[in-house]
Every structure is written in C-alpha cells, then in structure tokens.
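Q: A reviewer asked whether we had any structural model of the full assembly, not just the individual parts. We don't, so I'm hoping you can provide one. Inputs are below.
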Amino acid sequence: MRRVIVGMMMAVLAMGTAGYAETLQIDGSTTVGPIADAFAEYFKSVQPDLSITVKKTGSGDGAAALIDGRCDIATMSRFMKPEEFQKAVANNVLPVAHVVAMDGVCVAVHPSNPVKALTSAQIRDIYAGKITNWNQVGGSNTSIVVISRDTSSGTYETFESLVMKKTPMAAGVEYVNANPQAQARVRTTPGAIGYVGLGFQEGVKVLAIDGIMPTRQTIAKGSYPVSRPLFLFTNGYPKLGSVVHKFVSFYLTEKGQELVEAKGYVPLTNY
Amino acid sequence: MNSAEVNLTLEPAADTPRPLALMPGEDLRGYLLAHLGRAVLFLMTFSSVVAVLLILLFVIVRSLGFLSGYSLVEFLASRDWRPTAESPVFGSLAIIVGSLYVSFAALVFAVPLGLLAAVFLSDILSWRARNIVKPVVEILAAIPSVAYGFFAVLVLAPWMQKEFGFSTGTNALNASLILAIMALPTIISVAEDSISAIGRELREASYSCGATRMETMIQVVIPAAHSGIIAAVVLGMMRAIGETMVVWMASGNATQIPRPWWDVSQSIRTMTATIAGEMGEAPEGSQHRGALFAIGVLLLILTFGLNIVSEYFLTRAKKATGKT
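A: Here is a predicted structure for the entire assembly that you could use as a starting point for your response.
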C-alpha cells in the first residue's frame, strides 16, 4: 500500500516537473475552443513535453483571463470590446488579434417547413416578435417558435450585431445554451426557427439569407450576411519562433487548414 | 466517610489508562495532542462556516456596485431583461416570477405524490420491502441533473409537442415536471422519516377507538407529523428553486411571465438559469455582471429564508416525537 502511495506521489511530481518545461494556457470562446483543441492536440503529438490547457468558458472570460495574465492566448468569437481594451491597456496588456478562421451562422428551420429563404429584415422581425406566424412569410399557418442561443455565446453576439442590428429580441424568444441543443430543438419542433454554427446543419433545413446560401465560398468572401472572423488574442505580437507564435500562426499551414475544416469552420487559406 | 468516598470514585479511574481531563503535569504529550486535535477539528469546522460567510459577502460585495447605481424599483418591478442592448435594462421581475412559478408548479406535482409514497412506505409496505424501495427512491437524487436535462429536451419536449399540440416543448410544464421528479426523493425521504417517527402508540390508540387505517392516517398520524411534512415540502422547494442545469435546458428561458398565468405551455426563465447562462460572457466590471450578482443575492435570500423555515419545522418535528 505504502509503495503504491509513494509511486503515485512520484508520478505526480514527475508530471509537475514535465509541465514545468513549457506550458500554454488558452482560455475563451466555446466557438473557437474546438479549433484550439485540435491545434493543441496536434502540437502535443509533435512535442510531447508541451503542456497545453484549453478552457472553454466564453469569449468574455477569455478576455478577462488575458487581461489578468491568466492565459497566453484568449480565444474569442468577437472582437474585444472597448472597455476590455481599456482595461487591458491599463493592466499593461496590449491585445493583438489573429484571425484564425471564418465562421458562418446558419438560420435553420424544421425540414417540413416550405419556406426556403428569408431576408435579414424578415428574420429580424421574427426575432423582434413582429412576425409571429409562418404564413406571414409565405409558409403554412403555424405559429413560429423562435429559438436563440444564450446571450453569453459568441454566436448570439454575431447574430445580434449582424441580423438584429440592436433591435431588441421579443420576450417570448427561447434561449438554449449550445449549438447541438439549438439544432435538436429545431429538428424536433415543426414551427421552430433557430440559428447554429456551420457544423450543425444535420437534420435541419438551412435558409438562404438575402438570396445567399451559407457556403464556404460565400462565408470566406464575406458575401453571406451572417459571417464573422474568429480570433486568437495575445498580449503583444508573440516572440517569433516561440510556442505562442507557432500556435497563433498555425492556421497558415496546410495541416492547420485541414484541422479548421475538420471542425466545420471556413479556413482563410486555400491549399 | 470522606476518604471512603474519594476512594470509591478513584477506584474505577485507576483502571482506565488515562484520566479523562488531562492536566499538563500528568501527561504532557497527551495533553498537547488532545489540544492539537481539538484545534485541528475546530479549524476544519470553522473553515466551512467561514466559507459560507465569505460566499455571502463576496456575492453581496460584487452586487453593490450595480445596486447602488441602478434603480432598485426598476430592477425588481420591470419585466424587461435586456442586458446586452445599447441602453441595457435589468428588470428581473419576470425572472423572479419564473423561479417561483416552476418551483410551486413542481410542488403541485411532487407534494401529493411524495406524501402518498411516504405513507405507503411507512405504513402499508412491509418492513422488508420498504428497506429495498426507500434506497431505490433515494437513488433518484443521485442522477446528475444534466441527465434529467437531456431527457427533458430530447424526450419530454417532442412528446409534449406531439401529444398536447404545444407549439414549444421546452416550457414551464416541462421544467416543473422534471423538477418535481428531482424534488421527490427529498420529500419522500423526510416525510417518511417523520411519519414513521410518530410511533406505534398513537396509531394503536387510534385503532382502539375504532378508527380505520385511513382515518388513523388522515386524522391522527399526518396531523401529528405535520411539522416534518412541512419541512419535507420546504426542502423539496429548496431543491427546485436552486436547481440550475435542468431549468436551463427544459424551461426554454424566455424572459416572460406566462399570460394567462396558468398557461404552462409557455416558456419561462429562472434566476439560476439566468446567472448560469449569462455569467460567462458578461464583461468583468460591467453593469450586467453586477446585475447577475444582484440576482444571486435575491436567490441567496430566498434559499436562506426557506432554510430557516425548514430548520424551524424540523426542530418542531423532533420535539413533537420526543427525539432530539
């Protein structure tokens, strides 16, 4: 028994010293998290003594962690807000943004819904509660169940700034806390409308917005109205050749592009 | 006479290796160890008390900035919760009502069911069967709430849409049903304890007066156990009001008060779900974060109040049955 305990203690010590060699703390968005995870996994497979932790708590938490010096890289699905920037500068942290990929927010309805396309003004009116029945936009006589992501998600912020344009959402809008859950609710609710990330289109019908379908090309070009860049924020531009630098420029490599694509996002490179 | 008495008391003490109250002169090592042990135990107990106080203090302090800079009337009386709008509005009325709404609705389902189950377990089921059934009921409490949440979203919600024709399946009814299931083990367990604690004498006295089993139960045992039953209900309510994951997944989180008020097919939002859902993205030091902490203070006040009520009734129940 005692030998087991001693062995365990030594293992813990060994892990501690190994972790001491080189560590990378990443904190932030749940949307960018999967990309950071995939990158981290690849980095660890190449350099096994590297220890990378990826936390996915939200873009705001990521910014707060970078400002407090609790992380090396903040993953964010939105740009830093002015007050975050000011706080960072006051803390001697100079945030630098690296765009790692593009993401599109798809507006989805139940597969049985005859509606194929909406304008962004119509979508805005649906979420604002001005349009409440599908027959007002050329569908059947079904009341609309409006589903939004929670206000703490980057997807919500993108949707709000690009579609709602500061029009408040109606009180009857339902909130769900993750992309898969939004997808599941739309898939099982005939009158539902919801919005999800690009990788969550299975079982739901994605609508064209202002006549443009969300595809890799339209999102990368920015012609699809609800597309956004995803960011990695560092404190200053990282020292060339450092792990942080390798990490934030990894999206430029062929392997990086492959990983971004595998997670359902749109890469900026085209190998 | 005197010396004989002293001898009598000393004799058994001589058999025990160490005297009960140590003096440093008698056994210095034992004395120090005993006091060290006491100090360690004291620190451990004290740390949990301090933790509770610090949490309370922390939540209150973090909400002060918001509460001092925002109209308290608007915070408590407005139904508009638009924390990320250009000119944000933090009205928590719909959210407070939502929490109370689903908790009371959950009790409507859970109390009759829980009470009947408690009566069945304590008075009707054989002792041997009871010893199997009760632990199984208590396992309900061990199921992680996120598992209930998945059930609510993926099974209950589509089922309600299909069977009841609700336009949305994640609504007040869905959340209340799941909360009722989660509150049941607490209610059954505490109510069953207090009903069993009433004891044989009272029941036999009632039977000897010619009362039937049902009359005995309804007119004698349940009134006698009412303190414990009320405590059970309050504890069940605390479970419902503090639950986060399930309501976040099952209630739909629409910031509205159902209109008409009994329309349980409308979606609703609770205090816990609001805090859990929005904390991650509320910028540090912003009004939004302060408002969430202010809701946390309200929630703490509510649960502390309920806790005091349940403690009061539990103490009364113990006094009534003569067990302390």
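A: Points you may want to mention in the reply: Residues 111 and 233 of chain B are 7 Å apart (CA to CA). The first helix of chain B runs from residue 2 to 15.
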